[in-house]
Design a protein that fits this description.
globular, about 240 residues, 2 domains, 4 strands, alpha+beta, single chain
């Protein structure tokens, strides 16, 4: 009598990252990247086989951060980098890697997001996709001598292309979206002492896409607080 067939489930190589809220992953072979992306990478990119784009969608990352504590000047970056490093050391032990982002190298995160199929442009200038809406972000870019299967890009249209109401445009108190995106109008309004957009973007908050994944008020306030500090430091001089 023979044993009955057993179902063997393939291990998810990204399970460790998913558990920490780093639940968006894209794997590119470096040799297949377009020239405009290659030209932004450090000169040593030819010594690595793959580029790994890691992001998060929704609120789980913030929940994990709360458990680990928000210590340090850059707690989100520090946590994300530590989790990605631990994952690589476990999942592909012995493989060389280096972080491109966070780091001093300027790299087009939105361009990589477009290649991964995560990112579509929105009127309020934050990337959007059909699942997460605008409630996702890029957390790490790693050059690595790894052997993950390249991930095919997500193939979904921009949710903005079928939006008839464009509610986000009408909800912008600065009128910065009326004729395309007016950066100066946006920043000038945010700098007003009584601005309703100092610690949030009312246009972004009004978008119904991915509403179930909307960041908590604390998470929204934290990220927009950082952007407000940068605006006050560099724009308001």
């Amino acid at each position: 009598m023979t044993d009955s067939p057993r179902l063997i489930l393939a291990k998810d190589p990204f399970a460790m990252l998913n558990a920490q809220g780093l639940n968006l992953q894209a794997v590119f072979n470096v040799q297949d990247l377009p020239a405009d992306v290659l030209n932004t990478l450090p000169q040593q990119e030819n010594s690595y086989r793959q580029l790994l784009l890691i992001g998060h969608g929704g609120t789980l990352l913030w929940q994990q951060l709360a458990l680990h504590g928000m210590a340090g000047e850059h707690p989100v970056d520090d946590f994300s980098q530590a989790q990605v490093a631990a994952w690589l050391d476990c999942e592909q032990a012995g493989s060389a890697y280096r972080f491109v982002y966070p780091g001093p190298t300027t790299i087009g995160l939105q361009r990589l997001g477009m290649l991964a199929g995560w990112h579509h442009a929105s009127p309020f200038m934050v990337g959007i996709n059909h699942q997460w809406g605008s409630w996702f972000a890029y957390r790490a870019v790693v050059l690595a001598d790894t052997h993950f299967p390249p991930t095919p890009p997500l193939n979904s249209p921009s949710p903005c292309s079928s939006c008839a109401t464009r509610i986000c445009v009408g909800q912008c108190p600065a009128k910065a979206l009326d004729q395309g995106y007016d950066l100066r109008a946006c920043l000038d309004y945010r700098l007003q002492p009584d601005s309703a957009c100092r610690d949030r973007c009312l246009a972004r908050n009004s978008c119904p896409v991915g509403e179930a994944h909307r960041y908590s008020d604390a998470q929204i306030s934290y990220h927009y607080g950082l952007s407000m500090k940068a605006i006050e430091q560099w724009y308001a001089r």
